[in-house]
Structures are given as structure tokens and as C-alpha cells.
Amino acid sequence: MTIERGYAPAVELRDRVGRTAAAMRRKGLDAIIVSTNANLLYVAGTIINGYAYIARDGEVTFFVRRPAPLLIGEMALIRKPEEIPQWLQSHGKPLPSTFGLEYDIESYSTVVRLANIFPQSSHVSASDILAAERAVKSRWEIEQLRASAAIQACAYSKIPKLYRPGMTDVELQIEVERELRRAGTIGLFRMRGGQLEMYMGSLLTGDNADEPSAYDFAMGGAGQSAALPVGADGSAIKSGQAVMIDLGGNAGGWMTDMTRTYSVGALPQQAIDAHNLSIEIAHAIARRGHAGAAAAELYDMAIAMVEKAGFAPYFMGHRQQASFVGHGIGLEVNELPVLHHRSKEILQVGNVIAVEPKFVIPGVGAVGIENTYVVTDRGLDNLTVFPEDLIQLD
Amino acid sequence: MTIERGYAPAVELRDRVGRTAAAMRRKGLDAIIVSTNANLLYVAGTIINGYAYIARDGEVTFFVRRPAPLLIGEMALIRKPEEIPQWLQSHGKPLPSTFGLEYDIESYSTVVRLANIFPQSSHVSASDILAAERAVKSRWEIEQLRASAAIQACAYSKIPKLYRPGMTDVELQIEVERELRRAGTIGLFRMRGGQLEMYMGSLLTGDNADEPSAYDFAMGGAGQSAALPVGADGSAIKSGQAVMIDLGGNAGGWMTDMTRTYSVGALPQQAIDAHNLSIEIAHAIARRGHAGAAAAELYDMAIAMVEKAGFAPYFMGHRQQASFVGHGIGLEVNELPVLHHRSKEILQVGNVIAVEPKFVIPGVGAVGIENTYVVTDRGLDNLTVFPEDLIQLD
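Predict the joint structure of the above. Result:
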């Protein structure tokens, strides 16, 4: 199965670099130096120890401290980035007059160091260019995401067999983590920027779902420790409470988000209604979320449905509410576009979006679903195909 | 058990902030703005959504976008960091003339944004101050690390029971991950900076141990995917090969490193000799590693022992060799001091160091041990107490 090693084919890498170079030319950049892992993975096909130098003509040079298995471009062994200008000059390549660096992700120290290697040049942010390119997935990338979602669905199908009465949320989560790993996920939860942190995902039951978290995820939870205050906290899973499972699929590094809600015993009607409303909202967004639709409009539609049903106090949290209903996903879990009220983004064919209209019902827990969808001309195409209704654990 | 929630007591937090403020005064800083997770965890006792403002008098204000459970200091709710100067002024507090920011870890965009909130002030790097304070662990912190190591040892003791003939390295690793989680680790592998990535740790068997990796870890491995090229790659575990297990303990967020080597069938004498040499080196470093010893000297001693035994081609890798034999560890896996040839650091009481003299024997795999030690006046005190000889899996 191609996803096992996960190398993107050369034609794919060339297309990524070519599109990035085209965006650079439109913005007047002569070069971008890529130095952070997820973006290096995007342009090199694997993690490298060094830098990718993309020139405006679409040529890419990988300046590496250790040899890397590369399918495109040229590889130059260096000990430090200050050697880059000399290499370019000795290979007859022009030095950039304006070049881009990853302002939003790379450390201040590294950006300043890289800026100083071209003291005659001016530098600008390249974060937006790279994020915009990565937000539009190719056919090959969508196939990788489809495979990752299938692996995730395979593991989720075993969840009822993993449950045993008397389990805590953490105990059940550990068994689901193991099934996801056995099914083929690499585990790592890759996120843009240093602020978000997560082990493999989140499992919430009962009122722990209503515990505010410091992290900007859709849902909270106290977590197992003050050192990672999010998600399962060791609560016993009790009859009449919901168990929301949102653990990451990421076979081959391609992340898919799928949330399903399980229950022990019967849930109160209010929770069942909220869960069904979540499914309705996800389906409505899937119908309206064709290429050309505004991300903000999809969020506003969700809010209107929630308000009409009288569920506003519980939407995207209760004591603390998140202000988005979906987010781009791919090599990282927080990509573009974001479905929130102030979003300026217009959906494009090939965007991949996790849509997660969730509710927290006090005394019961979190209910709702999350699917990962591809934007098409006709609406959203679901990658995370799996039963959406509440699933009984016992 | 205190480690379960992991909040540091108020007296501990006050001491951390007080020592940081003293270091600031020595360096002429009037304030530090802490904005990255591991350092926020250090000064706030938990992850917060916002900033810790430490003034030279040792007072700390937590400027947060969401309320946080705090044991010390003052909490001020803000929407954006630009509100900080006004809050300080309205509370009769001076604006800094020189202040520190986390140059080495925080993104360029965020450092520039925070720098601009005090346009009349000059900013400098605070990364070194915070790293130096964190490198010296308190009695309470050492107790947390001791508890984390005990949990790790508990899980490691079950490894022979987890092995079944015919398993791959990934299959065995998944079972060890589960045991570590069941024993109480939170899973997250926290590392300083964005370059290193790891799921819960590394398991290496046979010649996969000799596969170079892009990451600067002690050992390599091809990994399961081009998206995370390090560690287990799906190799079958074979008779006559070593299985090196280096998965992270991190109960309560306090990370401990412990590596043990297992084998199926008998290993060649060369591998057994290398493993015993690893134990000898670790013990020699433990004897010589008292407060006042130079980190570089400990590395040089290890190299001398390796060369005398004729094992230099296999030390810290074979096709690719790492240039260190140990590293500080605590809230993150890559803290100070580092034991390498060019290190300028002198060991201090309370440093916690993972010592990992490892060998890669072609055709056999990686052998050796890793222990996490505390620096005392008399030498290193081992936290990861667990049998060190080769352990038979079958």
C-alpha cells in the first residue's frame, strides 16, 4: 500500500513546488527558504535536516546537514545556512532581492539568522503562500487522506468491543489509541505553531466535556494532568452519559478528523436531539459547501440552525464556547480554510475540511459528529464514511 | 498521588519565578514575557492561554485570554497582548526599559508583535535565562521525575510478556505504548523547538537501527512513514537481533528517558560486549558526574573508553553517528546540560541528565542502556532503576 512509506511521487512534489513558485512570482518574491518540518515534508516529500530553497523559476535546492532521500531538485550538503549564498553564486544562480521566510512558525532566532544570510536583500513573510498552497489538495493527496480515513474507520468500528463496564475515559482512550496504531496510524498529532498540543486526540465523557481548556480546540476537558490540560481526565464512564471520541487518523502523516459519539445506557432526549442536530448541520454544510461558497456563510448557517432549534447555549461548548465549526486539515490538523464568522475565505475545489458541529449538554457530556470532507463543485465529499448516529457501547 | 494532576505547589512556583527574576536582574532585564507552552507550564504550573509577565521585583502577572487555575501571581483577562502596557500603567507598575522574549522558541511573528507593545523599550533574548533556570531541578521536581521513572519501570517490566514470536517492531512498540499509558504516562513527547518530532519514543531492531534519520536524536531508524522518518519501520523481530526500547516516561508531564535492550535468541559476542561497555560507560559517567564536573569531560571520558575497547565505529550509531552521549531532561526531553565535546557547561546539583552510551552493531541492531540521573555532590543518582543487562524476550 503506497501510504505505508508515504513518499509523494516526484510529479506531485514538482507540482507543489511549481505552484509555490507561481504564487511567489505573483507576490514579487524571488525565493522562499522553507525551514519548518511540515512545510519541508510538503516540498521534499519527507522530513529533511536543513532547508528547501525555492527559486522563482521553480527550481528547488535542498541544503541539508545530512543526506536525504529526495525525488526532485538538487541536494547540497552544508554545515550551516550561511553557506547558501556562496553555493548559489558558485552555481551561477542569482541571489534574491526579496525572499520569504516562515514568519508565523519558525523561531525568531532562526528567521533573523536566515534573514542575515542575504544582507542586501529584503525579507517578507512566506507563511501565507505556503499555507494557501497546502490548503488545496491534489488528487494524490486526497487519496492519501481517503486511505487514512479508511484506517481510522476500521479502528473506530472496534470501539464497542473495546468497552468494558467500569472503565474510565482514559482506559477506553488507551484501547482506541492502540487500535488506531494497529490499523496503521503513525500516532503523531501534527499541528501548526507551538500553542496547540495533543497526544493522539480526545475522548470526553460526562461533565469533563464542560471543563474549559487552555487550548483552542473545539472541545475542552481537564486532561490527565496540569501539564496537558485537555481531554480525558480519568472520569468513570457512567450510564446515561455520552462518550465523544475524537482521535486522530494520520496514516502516512495525512491527518483525518472523525468524531463519533457513543453512549452507555440511554441518553436524555435533549442529548439525542442535539446529536441529531449535529448530523443535520454537518449534512447541510456538506450540501452548501461547494467551491465558491464563503466559509463564513457556512458558519453563519450552522449558527442559524442551532438558534432555531434553541441549542445555542450548548453549541461548541457550554461553559466555554469555541467560535468555529470547521477547519482545514491535511499534513497538520489546523490548516486553511477555517469556518468561522469572520472568515474571509472562499471554498476551492480540493480544500479538505473537518466539520464538527458539537454540543455539550450539562450532566450528559459532548454529543455530535465530525467528518473530514473534500470540497467539490457540487458540495462536500465525505472521506470519513462511518455510521453517524449515536452508537451504543453496552 | 500528587503526580496525577501534576500542579506544582505555590511555594515551588514562587521559587521558580523568584529565581528567574534574580537572573533577570543580574542580566539587566526589567521584565520577561513568557509565551511558549513549556515555559508557561514552568512558571504558571499549567498551560495557560496567554502570557506570563515576570517583573524584575519577582512579581508575576498572567495575561490570559481565558481564565486559568493559578496558584500564584495576579491574573488579568485580555483579548490581545497590546493591552498589557495599559494594564501595567493603570496598576501603577513601571513599563520595562529592557525586556526579554523567547527568541529561540517563539515564532518570529509573535516575538515581533510582543516587541512592538513596548515601542520605547529594547528587547533581548530570554531563552537562555529560562533554560538555565529549568536545568536545575528542585527537590519537588526530582520527586516528580522519580515517580515518572517508577511508572516507566513498571511498564518496562511487562515487556517480555508483551512479546510474541513473529511480531514486528511496530507491533511490539504499540503494546509498550499501551503499557506506558496504562501505567500512567500522558504520552505527549514534549521537545524544545520545532525541529524534533516523535510519537512516544523509539523501538529499533536489526539493521533498521543503522538507518540514518533526519532528526537529531541519538539513534535513527527509517520510521513507519516518510512523514516521520525515525524509529521502528515494520521490521520483523528476528532471532539473533537486538531490540532497543527507548519509549518516554512522562507522568504528569515530567519526562524520563530509559532505554533497555532486549533480545530474541542469543546475540553475537560483539553485541554483548558493546552492551556491557555501555553499562560501564554509564556507570563511569555516574561516578564522575558530580557537581562541578565539566559536561565535555564526561563526553571525552566516554569516547576514551569506547576507543580503548575498539568500538568507536559503532558508538552512537554506525552509518551516522550522534555527537553527544547525554542531555538534560525535565518538562522537555532536550534540556540543558548536553554532554558533548564542545559543551561549556559545568554540572550543578539538581541537573537531571539522560545518559545514553549506545552502539549500533551491523546485522544485529542497537545495544546499550540509557538512564536518567540527578546530579549530586557525590555523583549521579539514578532515577530509572531497572535491570540493565540484556533482557531475553523469548
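Chain B touches chain A through 69 residues (CB under 8 Å).
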